[in-house]
Design brief:
single chain, 216 residues, alpha+beta, 6-stranded mixed beta sheet, 6 strands
Length: 216
């Protein structure tokens, strides 16, 4: 319990990140995140924790299992499956939303197990065969990243361009200021220079999210 109290103090009061707390306490950032999430779901902050002895704090954070009908308590895993596609959304965040104020909620481990069982039923796959040099897949992907101007100190959000060869999965990535036509073309030129050649087809998504093949 001492380690949990210290993790809460460093994160909630001192404002340290999970990484910083983990380094200070010699534990992983995921463990720190688990402690903070358990406390958040239980409504325990530093002031509340200070007013509880170790046994009381443990009982608040680690609630005993209770009899329940799983079909009544299970969250909407279909919605969770879709939410996970959004940048920055994790199972831990979705579990916090589901469990906060819900005394009969699944514990985090059970929540994850049940979601993964659901996700397996949604998996769809199709085998694709790529011929070497035939296709290059290009797109902007993931979240933006902050870039600091060394002269002015101004922070801008850069876009991440990714190009991958279909057969080898050899990948090139770079940051561009925006997603203008000039940025798009320049990034592809850099990718081709990196690969040292041109694929027969370049596959990219259009504005509607559909893939389009272009002969290069």
């Amino acid at each position: 319990m001492r380690r949990i109290r210290e993790a809460l103090r460093l994160h909630l009061q001192a404002g340290l990140s999970y990484n910083e707390v983990g380094r200070a306490l010699k534990i992983s950032k995921s463990v720190v995140g688990k402690y903070v999430s358990l406390a958040k779901v239980a409504g325990v902050d530093c002031a509340v924790a200070d007013g509880l002895d170790d046994a009381e704090l443990e009982s608040r954070l680690y609630r005993p299992a209770v009899p329940r009908a799983s079909h009544q308590l299970a969250p909407d895993f279909g919605q969770i499956h879709q939410e996970l596609k959004r940048p920055g959304v994790t199972l831990m965040l979705l579990w916090e939303e589901y469990a906060t104020g819900n005394a009969l909620a699944y514990k985090y481990t059970s929540f994850c197990v049940k979601y993964r069982e659901f996700a397996k039923t949604q998996a769809r796959s199709m085998r694709q065969i790529h011929i070497a040099g035939e296709k290059l897949f290009v797109d902007y992907a993931g979240s933006t990243v902050p870039i600091v101007d060394a002269t002015t100190g101004e922070i801008a959000q850069a876009q991440i361009f990714v190009a991958t060869l279909g057969a080898s999965n050899c990948t090139y990535a770079c940051a561009t200021p925006r997603q203008t036509t000039a940025d798009w073309i320049a990034a592809q030129v850099q990718a081709l220079e990196f690969f040292g050649g041109v694929a027969r087809l370049s596959r990219a998504r259009d504005n509607l999210g559909n893939h389009q093949d272009r002969i290069m």
